[in-house]
Amino acid sequence: MAFRLIVGLLYLIIGYTQTASIGGSSKDYDTIVIGLGSAGTTAASTLARAGRRVLALEAQDRVGGRVHTVPFGDGIMELGAEWIHGTKSSRVYELALQNNFTVLPQDFEPKLYYGFKGKEVDGVLFMELINYALKVQGETPSEPLPLGQFITDRVFDYLKEKHPSVLMDKEFLNQYLHFIDTMVDSNEGTTCWNETTTASEYEELEGNQYMSWHRLGYKTFFDVLLNKHNNGSGLPTLDIELKKEVTKITWSQDPTKKVEVRCKDGSTYTADNVIITVSLGVLKERHETLFLPHLNEEKTTAIDKMSIGVVGKIVLLYSEKWWPQSNAFGFIWTLEEEQKLPDEDKWLYNVTNASETMGNTNSLVFWSCGNTAKLIETLPDDLVKRKVTELLRKFIGPHINTTIPEPVAMLRTYWHTNPYTRGTYTYDNLLTPQYPTARSDLAEPITDSSGNPRILFAGEATNSIHFGTVHGASETGFREATRLLQKSS
Ligand SMILES: Cc1cc2nc3c(=O)[nH]c(=O)nc-3n(C[C@H](O)[C@H](O)[C@H](O)COP(=O)(O)OP(=O)(O)OC[C@H]3O[C@@H](n4cnc5c(N)ncnc54)[C@H](O)[C@@H]3O)c2cc1C
Ligand SMILES: *[C@@H]1O[C@H](CO)[C@@H](O)[C@H](O)[C@H]1NC(C)=O
Ligand SMILES: *[C@@H]1O[C@H](CO)[C@@H](O)[C@H](O)[C@H]1NC(C)=O
Ligand SMILES: *[C@@H]1O[C@H](CO)[C@@H](O)[C@H](O)[C@H]1NC(C)=O
Ligand SMILES: *[C@@H]1O[C@H](CO)[C@@H](O)[C@H](O)[C@H]1NC(C)=O
Ligand SMILES: *[C@@H]1O[C@H](CO)[C@@H](O)[C@H](O)[C@H]1NC(C)=O
Ligand SMILES: *[C@@H]1O[C@H](CO)[C@@H](O)[C@H](O)[C@H]1NC(C)=O
């Protein structure tokens, strides 16, 4: 009896193992790529096109990561990245060109600025000072400073020389500084511009910083990489598994051992090496449980000291365009008006910017960042819709003859709430001068005792100069794929 029970148990165990191997490691992969954002998709497609057998595991039910094109209105909306930032030597722009896709510049001029009724700002001076601040932003003082402090000091020097009387106008200064603060923040994902350093290593690519995929959608980039565009058949040596959340990567110094990747659903896969591309936000939250053995101190310090920001979009769709002839609007708050806001509405003070998109007609995108964006993610739809409509009626209402209508649809982003992103993109924070090698430390592959790379790191955060962008993320995927291809195994 006991004997038969043991045999039965053994049979069960063997049966289980076999099933697991059919669903899992029955195939022999050279490389497992974790995450199919820009970095992972570039890495996986580069390796597969070179004939490597690749398995890509993506936690979400779609490819693209922090690029997310969805149908909206009479076209599409980009919930994540929207523009190609610069064209020269851009992997994204070049792919578009080579495939004869037209990408178009989105020109944000003229931009209309609105203050409160009776508190209109001097638009000419405002514009002059914004342009001055943008120019100064590109400069690097010899000693690293918080960006906000640096810009403020320079603007005050400029005013002293050009418009000394403005220095007495506390209200104007307040309005201007808050506006320009949120403007910087919306590019970094920070709560305050003093969280960013002047010592940032970020380098813009030459060319227009706002090239749009318009109605084609940024997802086209991924379709082409994966040979899915125009009903393409994919890549023969690349297997893609969606809804596969990786929970454990087990590796060994022993050159004869494979790397094992375990997923939340219990499936396991093995390969010679793994490229991990998850965001810095995901690494911060999970690195302690994700790797076995744990990451070394160099890597955990990098993960700890670097920062990822949050940018939020609220998109309102209208049955027709009711707003004045401009594709972008600035809302210029006064401190007095901020103080009138009840506590639960204070976040509106930091919503200072709305713009049209080239993905559809008749919608406006409202931008938020840092703690404001995090907070908005937690608010209910109807409240957000109502408050943003109030904002429009307050700022633009007095300037037009019609009543600003209710939107017919709304879309919102949840990049902080999303457990597979936990933020939008990294920025160089005040610790950057102290930890100048953090990004390259994170990018360093983990090798076995014979020096072969086993766990490789890609993703936007690992790009020392082009972080925070789709082209920069793609560069890192290409970098790690090339590292493996050069090691002709
Ligand atoms: C709102 C917003 C606006 C932006 N605007 C622009 C812009 O205009 N231009 C620009 O160039 N850049 C922009 N960016 C930045 C750009 O989108 C990112 O830098 C880039 O897409 C990051 O790519 P990545 O491959 O490094 O990471 P990701 O795209 O985050 O890819 C990582 C993938 O890993 C997956 N993953 C996470 N955890 C796991 C797990 N445990 N198991 C399996 N898979 C997992 C994720 O689901 C994700 O698909 C924007 C980003 C956001 C969010
Ligand atoms: C792009 O257009 C050129 C010129 O018309 C053509 O030679 C080329 O084959 C096209 N490329 C693709 C990928 O369609
Ligand atoms: C930024 O830092 C400067 C200098 O420390 C300070 O004067 C200014 O108030 C700060 N700005 C904000 C918005 O906190
Ligand atoms: C408005 O939002 C866009 C997109 O983030 C940004 O590039 C621009 O600087 C913002 N402008 C202002 C005035 O905040
Ligand atoms: C792709 O396939 C779908 C369904 O099979 C078809 O409707 C569509 O026209 C095809 N698109 C192209 C570009 O061939
Ligand atoms: C609004 O932005 C300021 C910095 O300009 C910040 O101090 C404040 O916390 C933000 N408010 C909210 C609700 O996020
Ligand atoms: C509003 O209506 C008045 C009177 O009809 C007109 O003179 C003015 O130009 C209109 N303003 C706008 C912004 O349309």
Summarize the structure.
This protein is of the alpha/beta class and 489 residues long. It has 14 helices and 22 strands.
What is the quaternary state of this protein? single chain
State the end-to-end distance.
51 Å
Strand-residue proportion: 15-25%
The major pleated sheet works out as:
9 strands, mixed
Summed over residues and divided by their number, the pLDDT gives a mean of 93
Shape category: globular
User: Which distinct ligands sit in these coordinates?
Assistant: flavin-adenine dinucleotide, 2-acetamido-2-deoxy-beta-D-glucopyranose
Tally of individual helices: 14
| CATH topology assignment of the largest domain | FAD/NAD(P)-binding domain
> How many discrete domains?
2
Portion of residues within helices:
25-40%
Please identify the top-level CATH class of the largest domain. Alpha Beta
For the secondary structure, the number of strands is 22
Radius of gyration: 25 Å
The structure class reads alpha/beta
CATH architecture group name of the largest domain: 3-Layer(bba) Sandwich
Topology:
Blueprint: H1 2-23, E1 29-34, H2 38-49, E2 54-57, E3 69-72, E4 75-78, E5 83-84, H3 91-98, E6 104-105, E7 112-114, H4 123-137, H5 147-162, H6 170-188, E8 211-212, H7 219-225, E9 238-241, E10 246-250, E11 259-263, E12 268-276, H8 280-290, E13 291-292, H9 297-305, E14 307-309, E15 311-317, E16 328-331, H10 335-340, E17 353-356, E18 363-369, H11 370-378, H12 381-395, E19 409-412, E20 425-427, H13 438-443, E21 446-447, E22 453-457, H14 470-486
Parallel strand pairs: 1-2, 1-12, 2-9, 7-16, 10-13, 12-22
Antiparallel strand pairs: 3-4, 5-8, 6-8, 10-11, 11-12, 14-20, 15-18, 15-19, 16-17, 17-18, 21-22
Helix pairs in contact: 2-14, 4-5
